[in-house]
Amino acid sequence: MKKILAIGANGIIGQAVIELLDDTYTVIPVGYSKGERRVDIEDNDSIKAMYESVGAVDAIISMAGNGMMANFDDASDQAYQVALNNKVMGQVNVARLGINYLTPGGSITLTSGQASNAPTQRTAAIAMGVAAINAFVTTASLELKSNHRINAVSPSFVKETMERMGMDSTNGISAADVALCYQSALEGVANGKIFDAVTT
């Protein structure tokens, strides 16, 4: 049975992905602040320790990566640093370090988002981060060896998240539907693809 490392397991999307894959694969959940295994993706030593504790895996799925909504004219430096340090470099380093623990033919799936595809107010910093992840994935895919693959899932606003924030979730996508995109990235043959998880 394939061994899947699922980073960001405690989030809404993470829980849905684990529920979908758990019957078929050996899924190893990793959280940030709770759970048996934890990682701080802004800390390379923490990432390395996670991989050392888990060993070789057949797939790495990162559903981590934070962002802050803020108005352009009063956004703090922190809003941009979170996007750069966590959303972008956190996931980039998950991939860069993780490739050494990936079995031949294995895959890495990162998470971007729709903020740069469908611009909305208060998301400039987030859009910058998700566009960077998409660019990294499509370009890094050209250089992978050992039949490794790298892709990204790009979800729009998730219904369950919108409801928690007191927003109208009519146009949101369910976490279960987003999880199907991670499954497609895991089980397919795509490399360098951005899987858009959006409502139709």
Automatic annotation (TrEMBL):
Keyword Oxidoreductase in annotation: yes
Name used for this protein in its record: Short chain dehydrogenase
Keywords assigned by UniProt, alphabetized: Oxidoreductase
Organism (species): Vibrio mediterranei
Protein origin, superkingdom: Bacteria
SUPFAM superfamilies registered for this protein in UniProt: NAD(P)-binding Rossmann-fold domains
Family, as annotated: Belongs to the short-chain dehydrogenases/reductases (SDR) family.
CDD domains reported for this sequence: Lin1944_like_SDR_c
Xref: NCBIfam families: PRK07578.1
